[in-house]
Structure formats: structure tokens, C-alpha cells
Specification:
Blueprint lengths: L2 E5 L5 E5 L4 H10 L7 E4 L5 H13 L2 E5 L2 E5 L7 E2 L1 H4 L9 H8 L1 E5 L12 H9 L3 E5 L2 E5 L6 E3 L5 H12 L4 E5 L5 H12 L3 E3 L5 E5 L8 E3 L4 H13 L3 E5 L7 H10 L2 E5 L2 E5 L8 E3 L11 H8 L5 E5 L9 H7 L3 E5 L2 E5 L8 E3 L3 H13 L4 E5 L2 H6 L3 H6 L4 E5 L2
Parallel strand pairs: 2-15, 3-14, 6-7, 10-11, 18-19, 22-23
Antiparallel strand pairs: 1-23, 1-24, 3-5, 4-5, 7-9, 8-9, 11-13, 12-13, 15-17, 16-17, 19-21, 20-21
Helix pairs in contact: 1-2, 1-7, 4-6, 5-6, 6-7, 8-10, 8-12, 10-12
The structure holds uridine-diphosphate-N-acetylglucosamine (UD1).
Length: about 425
């Protein structure tokens, strides 16, 4: 297994191009199954999760051609109604295939994804929503067996789950009647999905608010679409720059998708300049402690919680993070503590007391964003080398992170295992 080796102390300086959003491209790929013609996606990031979704779609019979940063998905040959356990267990987002399969075939057998490091992550909201759309659902041998074409209905979500919103939105797009999805997620990735579907001929309004209305249509055509920039990758690079006392500009991104995050960095004392699709972060006067609570969009993203915690480890004062989205998302704490951080966790809160520096150590990545947090801590460390193991987690969601950090001046390399 590969490892990433980091020696800290170099301030990161320069510009980095932000890649397409992982959390957008995965549902967009799944949604291509709804079309009667090939679809083309541009700005597709080269990530392990994208390869996982490629495998799920190929298994169903979709022809996927991923060349450079563009991907052509031809769903005309799709015929299988099953997404097997071996594929779904590797990536929870494979479960997004259920909605499009139901809309297209009127039946589907999709493995339940199971838990993961950051929480039990049930899919009850997805399943309740499908039932409200008239689909019969039963669980057999670890699989969701779903039957019936979705019919228009009013569906209220108990919580604005991102995945459930996307799954139900895709399911309701084809077929009879008008569907109102109430108390839905408002993430930019949902807006991107609705835009993609509308360009295929769907009739969706309200994406980006908590009420989405879908007027079912008979068929969808092929389309071309540019995936939005990854706001989490943007935040990760900006934090890495600030954590090393550097000057990093994230290019080809969208500050409107990161309002609360940018506000928080400013509250910490950072100077953030937004100009068109660029965001530059510096901290000429140093940084101070702040409190952060994660929440559904437009709240502070849970996917940036571990990274900002690494930064908080070395700012003056005591910061408190309250994790309100996942029940077990402080996996990075034990490893950050081994690098000299002073962090106390109680329930869903972490108290971070700033220390003057961190030191390098061998550490183990536990999930995608925790891995990014450990790399940032390694970049901060004033002595020693940090060896991050299990980096397959980071390859799931960041494209060639070590090369891009090195281009900003970091002393970082991958050791092939
Ligand atoms: C998506 C993102 C993930 C991000 C998360 C929250 C993708 C591929 N992944 O994950 O990076 O961290 O949003 O912003 O887009 N829940 C239930 N029942 C359900 C569904 C969710 O209880 O049926 C709970 C989850 O356990 C979790 C919370 O709701 O505690 C949020 O989950 P959800 O918004 O569904 O996240 P995902 O779509 O899995």
C-alpha cells in the first residue's frame, strides 16, 4: 500500500487549479442512466471514487469512456437491474444508482451500503422516500429489492440528506405526475444535478431551496455538462496554505459555494481575496481561535471539519468544533494528538487548544477527509517526517494531491507500496 511522506515547515505559495467536484460527478454519472442517448461530462476529476462509479455503471451495461477530463456515458445498452455488494461496499455513493434504475426499469436490486468509519450512515430516508413515490421496498439478503415505477407525490424528508435528495430527484424525473420533495438538501451539488437533468429535458424547479418540484417527463435526451468545482478541495488547499503561513490561490473555483467557510477563515484573522473564479488566502497578522459548528449547506461543511481542525491545532487560543452531521467524525483526533496536538473530545464536540508547533510522526488515515487533515498537520510540523499510511482513502477524493502540494512548495512525496 502506498504511503505519503511529508516534511513540514515550507510555506506553500502559488496557484492551484481546482478539479471537478467528486460529490457532483458521482450522481451525475448515475443520472446518465436516465437518458436515451449518450451524455458527456467535462471537468471530470481522476479519482478512485469515479472509477468505482464507472465499475457500477459498466456492470449495469452502460458504456463509459473516460479520456482526459471528459467522460462519455452511453446508457443505451444498459440492461442489468442489479448493483452487487462487491461494488457498493467499496463506495456508498453507488447507492445513488437505485433512483435512476427505478425510473428506467421499474425495478432494481441494489446492495445496502453498510456503515463506514464516520458513522452508521443508514439509508432509511432514501427508502421512505421511494415508498412515498409508490415503490415497493423490501430487504432481502442484504439487498434492497425495489419494484414499481415512481409516481408523483409529496415527499417530506425527516432530514435534508444529500444522497436521499439526489436519489429521489433522479427517480421522480421520468414518469407520471408532479413530485414535491420537501425539506431537501440545498448543496451546490444538488443544483448541479438538477441543471444536468434539465438540460436532458427534465422539468425540475427549486433546486438550491428546501422545496424541489419535479414534473415527470416521458423521456430524456443526451447532453453535455461541465461539472462544478470541488468546494471541499478548494477549502483543503486554502487551509493548507494558511496552516503553513503561505499564500495560496485556488483557481477555477466558486467562492459562492463556500460562504460560511470563507467567513470563518476571516473570523480567524485570514485575509481572503475573491476575484472571479479565484480565491486567495493569506494571514499576514496571524490567526486566532474560533468556534465552528458543522451543518447541512449553507452551513459549515462537515467535509472540511477535519482539515480546519489541523489548522486550529497551531493557532493561538482555544477553538471548539461541534460536529452536527455525522456521529463519529473525529477519527483524526488520535493521530493529530500523536503529532503533539492538544485536543479533547466530548460527545460531538472537540476542544482544540493551540500549541506552538506539531512534530512529524507515522500516522494512519481512517477516511478521506481525515487523511487530508493528517497531510496538513504534516505540512505544519516543525520537525520530523510524517508518514501517512492507508492513503487509498485520500485517492478516493483528491487527484494527485502530493504532486499539487509539491507544486506549491511542499516537501511531500508518495512512496509506492
Ligand atoms: C454526502 C457527501 C459527503 C458529505 C455528506 C454531508 C456525497 C457522495 N457524499 O454524503 O461527502 O459528508 O453528504 O454533507 O455526496 N442519514 C440518515 N438516513 C439516511 C441518509 C442520511 O440517517 O437515509 C444521516 C447520515 O447518517 C448522516 C446525515 O444524515 O448522519 C447526513 O447524511 P447525508 O446528507 O445523506 O450524506 P451523504 O449523502 O451520505
Amino acid at each position: 500500500m502506498d504511503q505519503i511522506l511529508v516534511r513540514g515547515g515550507n510555506p506553500l505559495r502559488g496557484s492551484v487549479n481546482i478539479r471537478g467536484a467528486k460529490n457532483s460527478v458521482l450522481p451525475l454519472m448515475a443520472a446518465s442512466l436516465l437518458a436515451e442517448e449518450p451524455c458527456v461530462l467535462h471537468n471530470v476529476p481522476c479519482l478512485h471514487d469515479v472509477f468505482s462509479m464507472d465499475k457500477v455503471l459498466t456492470e449495469i451495461g452502460v458504456r463509459v469512456d473516460f479520456t482526459g477530463q471528459s467522460m462519455t456515458l452511453d446508457p443505451t445498452t444498459a440492461e442489468s437491474r442489479e448493483a452487487p455488494y462487491e461494488l457498493v461496499r467499496k463506495m456508498r455513493a453507488s447507492f445513488f444508482i437505485l433512483g435512476p434504475m427505478l425510473a428506467r426499469f421499474g425495478e432494481a436490486r441494489v446492495s445496502l451500503p453498510g456503515g463506514c468509519a464516520i458513522g452508521s450512515r443508514p439509508v432509511d430516508i432514501h427508502l421512505k422516500g421511494f415508498e412515498a413515490l409508490g415503490v415497493s421496498i423490501c430487504i432481502e439478503d442484504g439487498y434492497v429489492v425495489a419494484k414499481g415505477r415512481p409516481k408523483g407525490a409529496n415527499v417530506g424528508l425527516d432530514y435534508p440528506s444529500v444522497g436521499a435528495t439526489e436519489n429521489l430527484l433522479m427517480a421522480a424525473t421520468l414518469g407520471d405526475g408532479v413530485t414535491r420533495l420537501i425539506n431537501v438538501a440545498r448543496e451546490p451539488e444538488i443544483v448541479d444535478l438538477a441543471k444536468f437533468l434539465n438540460s436532458m429535458g427534465a422539468q425540475i424547479s427549486g433546486a438550491g431551496t428546501d422545496l424541489i418540484t419535479i414534473v415527470g417527463v416521458d423521456s430524456l435526451s443526451g447532453t453535455e455538462h461541465e461539472v462544478i468545482a470541488d468546494r471541499i478541495e478548494t477549502g483543503t488547499f486554502l487551509i493548507a496554505g494558511l496552516a503553513t503561513g503561505g499564500d495560496v490561490t485556488a483557481c477555477n473555483t466558486n467562492a459562492e459555494h463556500l460562504e460560511q467557510f470563507v467567513d470563518k477563515l476571516r473570523e480567524m484573522g485570514a485575509e481572503i481575496e475573491v476575484s472571479g473564479s479565484k480565491i486567495r488566502a493569506t494571514a499576514p497578522n496571524g490567526l486566532k481561535a474560533v468556534d465552528v459548528s458543522t451543518g447541512p449547506y449553507p452551513g459549515f461543511p462537515t467535509d472540511l471539519q477535519a482539515q480546519i481542525m489541523a489548522l486550529m491545532c497551531v493557532v493561538q487560543g482555544t477553538s471548539i468544533i461541534k460536529e452536527c452531521v455525522f456521529e463519529n467524525r473525529f477519527m483524526q483526533v488520535a493521530e493529530l494528538s500523536r503529532m503533539g496536538a492538544d485536543i479533547e473530545v466530548e460527545g460531538n464536540s472537540a476542544v482544540i487548544r493551540g500549541v506552538s508547533s506539531l512534530s512529524g510522526a507515522p500516522v494512519m488515515a481512517s477516511d478521506l477527509r481525515a487523511s487530508a487533515s493528517l497531510i496538513i498537520a504534516g505540512l505544519i510540523a516543525s520537525r520530523g517526517e510524517t508518514m501517512v499510511s492507508r492513503v487509498y482513502h485520500i485517492d478516493r477524493g483528491y487527484e494527485r494531491i502530493e504532486e499539487r502540494l509539491a507544486s506549491l512548495g511542499a516537501d511531500i512525496r508518495r512512496k509506492r507500496g
